[in-house]
Amino acid sequence: MSMSSAGQLTASKPHSLNHQPPPSVRLMRTIGLALLLTFSCSPASLRADQKWVPPGAEGNSTPAATARQALTAPAVTITSTPKPTADVSEFTREYIIELERFEIDHTGQHPVETSRGINRALQHAKTIKANRIVFPPGTYLISETDPIILDHQNTIIDLNGATLQINTNDQPKYAIVEIVDGAENLRLTDGFLKGDRDQHDYSSNHGAHEWGHGLIVTSGRNLEIDHLTVTNVTGDGANSRMTGARTRPELLARINHSLYRKHLEPGRFSAEGTKIDSAENIRTIEPLDITRCGGEFEFGYSTGYLGYPFIRSRVYRACFYDADRTFLEDRQCLQFRKVQVPANAAFVHLEFEQPSVPEEPVHAGAGRGSFVGRISSFTPPTDVHFHHNTLQGNRRLGLGYCGGRRWLIEENLFAGNGGTAPAYGIDLEDGWEFMQDVVIRNNRFRDNVAGDLVICAGSELLIEDNVFEKNVAVHARPHNYTFRNNRFTGGNITFKTRTGVATFEGNTYENCTLSIMYDTSAVADGLYRRPEEQLATPPLRLSNETLLNVTRITGTYFDFDNATLKQTHFIAGDETSLVRFHKCRLSDSSIIYEAADTPVRVDFASCSGELNATGPGQERRQFVGQSAP
Fold this sequence. Notes:
Distance between the termini: 73 Å
Number of strands: 57
Helix content: under 10%
Structural class: mainly beta
């Protein structure tokens, strides 16, 4: 279908896109998790060496599998592809945006009228039930105060090679295009989003001017974003959000209950959902109404830097009741992850595995007070396929991933991004624990100023088959993450953990440095500890890896299985506690033991070649294996 001159839908041949979607992506291989602990786990489910205790957890320690609350590592859930909107031939009710009717200029002039007209035309297309909206070729100057808003369902929006150019401005923040709540089964494809980085006025308004974004994905479900080129913005080429809200009223509407200390009491719930005494648990005093949650909710400390500042275990229990407050069922849940409300449930009680709530937050990023968490119904962008895009020359980041669930980010180019911090290709940061089930696969990185990838938080993350040429940094807070079959060709590579739940397999490291660290601060890790109790954490193990001319490897653990190491050099510093090589092939490689008080467990077995050991701290070694480097 297409629009006649009278503005009616008429039959037409499918409009041809410049780019066709790729074939369906292959099925994900089973993820080898470093640790999978559920509420029924026994100590026998652990490898023997997973009882190893890093610095900061020595002395009175308990293996995590025998702790009262389990450390859970769900499998990564990957958004389905191809998206329904990938099949262009199915979208035949075409509407070509009417420039004259809506006073839209496509010659790079009149931004106020053009933004207003495009948004009016897009809404008009919904009223006539068009499912394919096509932009005439040209350059559309977009107002810095009036972004293009997409809230369409079952629709392809084809920019058709057009450029949406932000008007030169002095604003600290802007958006060219924003996908908002209500968007569902929507595809945005084939065009250019261009910022004003080089012409922008940075002096008239105070601030870092780091929030001028090309595309903001605020909300939406089942989205496809492909074959876009996003360049030259003052902030991020693309940016995602965690709550789904654009305004404070929208945000408040998504907060169902705020819990304070006054809402909690000592005790727990029986298997039948009745209150029983317990000195080890706290629970809600009154049941909480969940009838306006929209069928799902999450619980967590969703302010500041999030984390677990008051309710310390990521695991909690929910007991559901019907409208008459008759018990229906209970579930073990994870903070910040969606909980599906059972049929007929109207109320919920929450139970937490700790005897009280501390007066002071146990980690930074939370305020002192009586507020401990929220039941919310946030609507972050969910089930998103972000592919075959180019994000280049943007001043802050290529992609600022600040919230979302089940994103597949693949076959993109991140090039030349940076100019103000953080200056990476991709940064997973401000969404904190609301960054879940993210796959970063088969992407290319080139000439990004500070580095290619930084991960500050998130859970259930899979990074595979990428080529990184500069710095990659994983901070200690991410939980249950996997690096598989990537190639690192330079820069500094840093892997950190607080939980020990991470997997490294089949990666190649060349001409770079590597650090593998356990963070001993034990905060924001989702584990509750009784006073004076410490929990053992498994080391980060690297399996089937290849290291070529890795000039410096530092860290808490050197734990390798079936690895090939050539011209690779380790430094066992004060923080190093484990040197383990099993079935490895070594050549022209060495380790220096620095003088320190920390003993080093050395386990060297079934390896070929030698690891030349030197340094003043060789007396630190405590030998376990067949031979000792």
